[in-house]
Sequence to fold (365 residues):
Amino acid sequence: MAIVNHFSLIIRNFDLIIYDSYKIIDMKRTVFAAITLLLAITLQAQRLLVGEQSSGIKRVNNRMYNPDPAPVVSGDRLYVFTGHDLDTATYFRMPDWQVFSTTDMEHWTDHGIVLSTANFKWAKQGDNAWASQAIERNGKWYWYVAAEDTTKHLHGIGVAVADRPEGPWADPIGKPLIPGNWGFIDPTVFIDDDGQAWLFWGNNGCWYAKLNEDMISIDTSFAENGICGMRAMLDDEAQFGPKCLKMDYQLHKKVMKTGFEEAPWIYKIGDTYFLEYAAGGVPEHWAYSTAKSIHGPWHYEGRITDESPGSFTIHGGTIDFKGKSYLFYHDGIPSGGNGFRRTTAFREFQRMKDGRIPKIDIQEK
Fold:
């Protein structure tokens, strides 16, 4: 993987992704496509040299590209909610969301595309169906998704409700749960021991809200009109890792920032809260912090993985199922290194006794 890591450094140094309402500026697209092609050629060459993937990599399904996995356990079954990169994508072309499930981590049921932008009349149609996470409560399923709010021309957070993961799903409020704003993507949801549900989200920042018991509204008496920003905590190296000079895509300039980039994943083990996230800028790696309160302060624990093979992004999370622990994430190996055609992968790992996560090798062997 030395050559792949070399190209990852090239991508980082060129600062090729510049967001303008989450769209890449056209003059950068050609250069980035060239780097992506070089990465694809490298991965293909390595595949020929090695002959096979590492036996540690497992996948839920290869029928369609399925990025941004969000695993959740319900009874005897583990479900994975994902996005959908189009087969022809040369940028983030994502029209809908998919669901997969298993009872043994070996045999997977593909439940297909069960939710799309068409379910959200307020959203841009046929595209920008970005990362999501679902949760079960009181016999209902709630699916929190990032979609483009057409009144703001920025992503916001929507919610859909169903009786089961396979659907049918419906938008119960007819508007974004969290209206569009800069960085309002990548929702993650968690129900605490006291029954209080929390919603976290964010790119180039992290925010969280207190969900009401109905799971389709937020408590506006909490923080600032219901939304609490984490800017001060994110600026603390002790909480989110060493600072480095990286691009702020909202300000269009380089600034010193800690590791947190996007894709929060929140949960709790015992009395400790875990916040996993994509870190380090572009390309991203997976890292985590812990806290004794949902409100922080957080303690930076370090990397979980290095950069994802063939993908300049990484998104996913860890989960425990039937006595074992698994890390879900996406990579670009099946597409030959196309960072806009990503596929869910997972690996088994063993947590430390206090729940902390060891460094996990996700590189192609």
About this structure: The domain at 2-102+115-349 is CATH 2.115.10.20 (Tachylectin-2; Chain A).
